[in-house]
Amino acid sequence: MASQNDFNIPISENKSVDEGFDYSQRGQWLRAAVLGASDGLVSVASLMMGVGSVKHELKAMILTGFAGLVAGACSMAIGEFVSVSSQLDIQISHMIRVRAANQESEREQLPNPVQAAAASALAFIFGAIVPLVAASFIVNHKVRLGVLVAAVTIALAVFGWVGAFLGRAPVVKSCVRVLVGGWMAMGITFGLTKLIDSCRL
């Protein structure tokens, strides 16, 4: 039997399952991993769909996807390194001020910028590989686009399910949100690229 708190969120009375585990802590690294993989998946797939709307050659799509993978992974790694480094500086400065004031504080686990950068880049690469592999061995242009969309759809659904399951969040809501966002990104990129090409700028 489940009860509800002030936010109308069901609370399990089986404390033996949830007691002693902080899902908010797991949610921090889980959020970064899922976001990185989803970003790699959607970004690279959208790039390939955009190029595929005007170029039928397999090589053009694959080169675009690979360039997007490398650029995106580097961007994610650098951004995460800078962000976590700033967080580290703030935490260290706070610890110094607390010690200078002769105050006691709880020992905090300091973030690791290099580790965060590597994890972010690897997550992006993991997601970006999906559309690249899906399109790599299909010569027919229309079939290639269809397989690409299908593979990305399945991967987005899996990412949404995994994130919701491990974070104890609503599965259906998470999957729908991820799927709609991914479809919109691919559709908008495909349509706008085709429109720009038709203008013959």
From TrEMBL:
Record's keyword terms, sorted: Ion transport, Iron, Iron transport, Membrane, Transmembrane, Transmembrane helix, Transport, Vacuole
Positions in coiled-coil regions: none
Membrane topology of the entry: Multi-pass membrane protein
An individual GO BP term: intracellular manganese ion homeostasis
Keyword RNA-binding part of the UniProt annotation: no
InterPro entries hit by this protein: Ccc1_fam (IPR008217)
Keyword Membrane listed: yes
Reaction(s) catalysed (UniProt annotation): Fe(2+)(in) = Fe(2+)(out)
Gene Ontology MF terms in the entry: iron ion sequestering activity; iron ion transmembrane transporter activity; manganese ion transmembrane transporter activity
Top-rank taxon: Eukaryota
Residue intervals passing through the bilayer: 29-48, 60-78, 116-138, 145-166, 178-196
Subcellular location: Vacuole membrane
GO cellular component: vacuolar membrane
Job of this protein: Vacuolar Fe(2+) uptake transporter.
Entry similarity comment: Belongs to the CCC1 family.
PANTHER family: FE(2+)/MN(2+) TRANSPORTER PCL1 (PTHR31851)
Protein's UniProt name: Vacuolar iron transporter
Native source organism of the sequence: Deinandra increscens subsp. villosa
Lineage per the UniProt record: Eukaryota, Viridiplantae, Streptophyta, Embryophyta, Tracheophyta
